[in-house]
């Protein structure tokens, strides 16, 4: 049985908790406060280092073993998200096309909303076809900040 480990990182968007087992990162999400009930491990520290570099503009891609829990469809949607380049956006329909399910636009939106690995699996890069910012589990203010940051429109100034 794998041991669950956590690391926390204070980012311009607030605290982020990184969860991993002995094999891979299983979740990255925004939290209100840190939780020291689980020790860190090498993977959570590596992810924290890579995220810190991202927020310093020293990294645009992540090199981490990931193991998000979800259905086959969700995992396909999340894998497609990882193909969206830093600083670019895609529409939900484009993501549906990429996984070979062009009529599954709403299901793509639901899968993106269930993405357990924020930032590294960049669901914030998917927008509505009319250019509108639609849903983000971390909140639309964070999605807007991440997109502006990646497109060079922001310094590293905190959102909060």
Automatic annotation (TrEMBL):
Reactions the enzyme catalyzes: a 6-O-methyl-2'-deoxyguanosine in DNA + L-cysteinyl-[protein] = S-methyl-L-cysteinyl-[protein] + a 2'-deoxyguanosine in DNA; a 4-O-methyl-thymidine in DNA + L-cysteinyl-[protein] = a thymidine in DNA + S-methyl-L-cysteinyl-[protein]
Which intervals hold domain Methylated-DNA-[protein]-cysteine S-methyltransferase DNA binding?
Answer: 72-151
Can you give the residue ranges of the Methylguanine DNA methyltransferase ribonuclease-like domain?
5-68
A UniProt-annotated Pfam family: DNA_binding_1
State where the protein is found: Cytoplasm
Q: What class of enzyme is it?
A: transferase
Biological process according to GO: DNA alkylation repair; methylation
GO CC, one annotated term: cytoplasm
Q: Which residues form the active site?
A: 123 (nucleophile)
Keywords, in A-Z order: Cytoplasm, DNA damage, DNA repair, Methyltransferase, Transferase
**MF GO annotations:** methylated-DNA-[protein]-cysteine S-methyltransferase activity
Q: Which PANTHER family match?
A: METHYLATED-DNA--PROTEIN-CYSTEINE METHYLTRANSFERASE
What is the similarity comment for this entry?
Belongs to the MGMT family.
**What does it do?**
Involved in the cellular defense against the biological effects of O6-methylguanine (O6-MeG) and O4-methylthymine (O4-MeT) in DNA. Repairs the methylated nucleobase in DNA by stoichiometrically transferring the methyl group to a cysteine residue in the enzyme. This is a suicide reaction: the enzyme is irreversibly inactivated.
Q: What else is known?
A: This enzyme catalyzes only one turnover and therefore is not strictly catalytic. According to one definition, an enzyme is a biocatalyst that acts repeatedly and over many reaction cycles.
Could you identify this protein by its name? Answer: Methylated-DNA--protein-cysteine methyltransferase
- Say which species the protein is native to: Saccharospirillum salsuginis
């Amino acid at each position: 049985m794998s041991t669950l480990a956590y690391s926390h990182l204070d980012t311009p968007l607030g605290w982020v908790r990184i969860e991993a087992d002995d094999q891979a990162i299983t979740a990255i999400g925004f939290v209100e406060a840190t939780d020291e009930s689980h020790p860190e491990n090498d993977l959570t520290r590596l992810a924290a280092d890579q995220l810190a570099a991202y927020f310093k503009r020293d990294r645009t891609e992540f090199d981490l073993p990931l193991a998000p829990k979800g259905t086959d469809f969700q995992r396909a949607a999340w894998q497609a998200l990882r193909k969206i380049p830093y600083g670019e956006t895609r529409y939900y329909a484009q993501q549906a096309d990429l996984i070979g399910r062009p009529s599954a636009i709403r299901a793509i939106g639901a899968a993106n909303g269930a993405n357990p690995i924020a930032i590294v699996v960049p669901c914030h890069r998917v927008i509505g076809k009319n250019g509108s910012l639609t849903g983000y589990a971390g909140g639309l203010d964070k999605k807007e900040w991440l997109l502006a940051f990646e497109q060079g429109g922001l310094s590293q100034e905190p959102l909060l």
